[in-house]
Amino acid sequence: MKRRDFLKTGAIAAPAAALAAPAIAQGVIEWKCPTSFPSKAPGIGTNATTFVERVNAMADGRLKLKLYSGGELVPAFAVEDAVQNGTAEIGHGTPYYNAGKNSANHFFTTIPFGMTATEMSAWLKFGGGQDLYDEIYGQRNLVPFNSGNSTVQAAGWFKKEITSVEDFSGLNMRIAGLGGEAMRKLGVNAVLLPPTEIFPAFQSGAIDAAEWVGPMLDQAFGMNKVADICYAPAFHEPGAGLNVVVNKDAWESLSPDLQAIIRNAAEAAESETIAQFEYFNAQAFKALQDSGVMFKTFPEEVLAALKTAVVEVLDEQAAANPDFARCLESYNAYLSVARPYSAAFSAPSMLQRG
To answer: InterPro entries given for it (predicted)?
Structure first.
C-alpha cells in the first residue's frame, strides 16, 4: 500500500447531519462508525477495520457497522463528539484526542514515563481503570472500550541532533498528549496535528520535528523522507491505547448478545493490533536502519529535565481536575508495584537475551 493511498482516504472532511435514531431495515441495525485515522493505515487504521469486520461477522447480519475513514464523515478530532450527539452510534480513535473534554482522558491513552501496553491492559481489567473509564466517559453519555495499543512509540523525528535541553528552545514540534505539555515547559512550541497533516507540515518546514507513532507507521507516513534522526523510545508514550466508543442510548438499545459481540470484538482487536505493531515495527526498524536512519536516545540531562517537567504537568492537572486526580491515584497505585516487578523480570530478560 502506498502512503498517498491511505492518506488520501482520510483527507476529506464533510459535514454530517445528526441521526434521529439508528437505521433499522427489516430487523437489521445499521450503525455508522467513523474513525480518527486513515482506515487503511497499518496498526491504527487496521485496528478499526479489524473491529468492524469482527462485529459484522459475529452479528451475522443483525448488526452492521459501516466504517468511515478519518475525516470522511466527521473531522478526525470530532469522532467522540459525533457519537455523543448521535451523528454516529459508534466511533473509533484514541482518548487523548478528547482531553479538552476532560483531561483525565489522557490516562486511557498514555501517560509519560508510565505504563506499557500490557500494564495498561492489566490496570484497566484488574486495577480499577475500566471503572474510572466507564464513569468518566459516562459523563458524556458514552460507553468506552479499549481496543488496541501501539506499544512503545518513538520520541520523534528531528532534523538536528538533540544534545541538550537548550536545543528544544523555539522548536516547532508535532507531539501529542501530556508529552506536549512537558515539552512546552522546556521551550518547545508543541502542536497537535491530525494524522494526515503531519507529513505535509514536516516536509514544508511548518514544523521542525514530528512524533507520530513508531517504525511501522512512521515509515508508512514518510517521516524518514524528511529527517534521518529518530529518537527512541518515547518518554511520553510507552504504550498508547486505542478505543471504541458507543453512544449510551444506542448501546442500551442492543440485546445482551450484541453488546457481548461489541465487547469481545474490541478485546480481539486489541490483541491482534498489539501483535501487529510488535511484528511490523521490528521489520520497519530494520528497514529504516538499513536505509541510513540514525536511532538515538535522549541524553540523560534531557531525560532528567523531561521527568521534572512531567511531574509538574501531572501535579498541575491533578490540582485542576478531580477526575484527573482520582485517575492519577489509581494509576500510580498499580504502577508503584508494576515498576519494581518489570525491573526485576522484564527488563533483565530483555538484556539477557541480547
So the answer is: DctP_fam, SBP_TakP-like, TAT_signal, TRAP_DctP_sf
334 within domain boundaries: no
**Inside any domain, residue 73:** yes
Q: Are 293 and 230 a contacting pair, CB within 8 Å? A: yes
Contact 230, 288 (CB under 8 A): yes
Residues flagged as binding site: 153, 174, 211-212, 237
Domain count, the chain: 1
Whether this prediction's pTM lies above 0.90 is answered by yes
115-167 pLDDT, tens digit each:
999 999 999 999 999 999 999 999 999 999 999 999 999 999 999 999 999 99
Closest by CA to 242, choosing from 197, 219, 272, 211, is: 272
Return the C-alpha cell found at 303: 531525560
Binding-site residue ranges for substrate? 153, 174, 211, 237
pLDDT in tens, 15-40: 333 443 456 657 899 999 999 999 99
Q: What is the CATH number of the domain that holds 23?
A: 3.40.190.170
Q: Which residues are annotated as a binding site for Na(+)?
A: 212
